[in-house]
Amino acid sequence: MSSENTPPVDPHQPPPSGSSPQWQQPPAAYPAPGGAAPMTPADERTWATVAHVIPIAASILSAGFLGFVASLIVYLVYRDRGPFVRRFAANALNIQIMEFIAVVVSLPLMLVLVGFITLPLAIIVAAILHIIAAVRANQGEWYDPPMVPRFVK
């Protein structure tokens, strides 16, 4: 009958001091979203290479308009995971920005037939720069493409 004299326990209140909680949260199995772990050098080389290889196909398939998407994704996801992948993803974005500018300039130039030369030329030059950068990234060598301003650092 002593249970009738005890007050009801409010589940929203913390346990009284001196008593140990019955349940504890288990440790997190994954790192916190803001604290991404650094990558191994092999992983950095892989993602730096991916940042340059995928835009080649995307640029060719979209006439130069969608090549930046893969580079942007790699840059946003992996930029804080290592300096090597950050530099190569930024370089890939810079190449794509230059290609986009050249494509946009080439479109009105098609009215005077010059754009029919500059459009494929812009896509080919960007593809060559991406191939060189991908090979260098795969070899683990630092590389900055020539004649490409650094819009993204």
TrEMBL record:
Ranges annotated as biased composition (Pro residues): 8-18
Main location: membrane
Location in the cell: Membrane
Keyword Membrane: yes
Membrane topology: Multi-pass membrane protein
Regions that span the bilayer: 53-76, 113-135
Compositional bias segments (type: Low complexity): 19-39
UniProt key word Transmembrane helix: yes
Keywords from the named record: Membrane, Transmembrane, Transmembrane helix
Region (Disordered), start-end ranges: 1-39
Xref: Pfam families: MamF_MmsF
Protein name stated in the entry: DUF4870 domain-containing protein
Species of the source: Nostocoides japonicum T1-X7
